[in-house]
Amino acid sequence: MMKIIINADDFGLSPGVNYGIIDAHRNGFVNSTTMLTNMASSEHAFELMKSHPKLGVGVHLVLSCGKPLRTDVPSLTNEKGNFKLTNAYASHPFDLDIQEVEREWEAQIDRFFQHGLVPTHLDSHHHIHGWAPLRESTFKLARKHQLPVRHVFNQDEVPSDVKLLSDEFNASFYSEGVTPDFFVKLNRTESNVVEVMCHPAFIDHTLQQFSSYQQQRVLEHKIVTTTTLPEQLELMKCRNQLLS
Asked: What's the pLDDT score for residue 222?
């Protein structure tokens, strides 16, 4: 039997996203999510999280949506004070100060700890934690906080002292890959644990402001709340720990 983590990205992006993810957990098979702790709706997400203890919640590290939590990270922002990266930024020359990246990401992680809980893992918006210039910063933070990381790397890129969230990461439930039979057709692999990314949500004004990926989120929500997982897939328990 293959163990599976079905992680809903972008918790905290907007109230509609937050409610969509919670509903996909309560009435579907989403067992994990990751939070954008820098967004205005992250406090709403923290409140929802408290009443849903079986939903694992990690930190969705971000450099490409909203504003930074810190004010001393000028290389990360544009003239309006927003993060200047986009999901296409990897094709541009790298001009971010690594120390500033680490300060900002540390602030995003600390905001989670300030609510008295330990996140289940680290991943990132647009998978930027796996981008070559930022890889070592990701591993540094994972070691410091003893947290597993979403597996978006080649195996030889991961140090032996860094724990991965899963043996395999599946990002194909996205855009054109969002089909009603996706999970039914999910093939058994040699991996013991597979993470599948998803983005269930209800559309609201804030989502329309920050993301071009909208209608497909509604379809994703429908699929993860109306499909029955095949018997050969076992949902992992993903729970946060209380700070001692």
From this structure: 98
Q: What percent of the chain has pLDDT over 70?
A: 97
Q: 9 CB contacts (<8 Å, ≥6 apart)?
A: 33, 34, 60, 123, 125, 197, 198, 199
Q: Which fold would CATH assign to domain 2-242?
A: TIM Barrel (3.20.20)
Q: In angstroms, what is the C-alpha Rg of the chain?
A: 17
Domain residue limits, the chain: 2-242
**Report field, pTM of the whole predicted structure over 0.90:** yes
How far lies 139's CA from each of 2, 112, 183, 207, in Å?
A: 27, 18, 31, 30
For 133-179, the pLDDT digits (tens) are 999 999 999 999 999 999 999 989 999 999 999 999 999 999 999 99
Asked whether the beta carbons of 228 and 36 are under 8 A apart, the reply is no
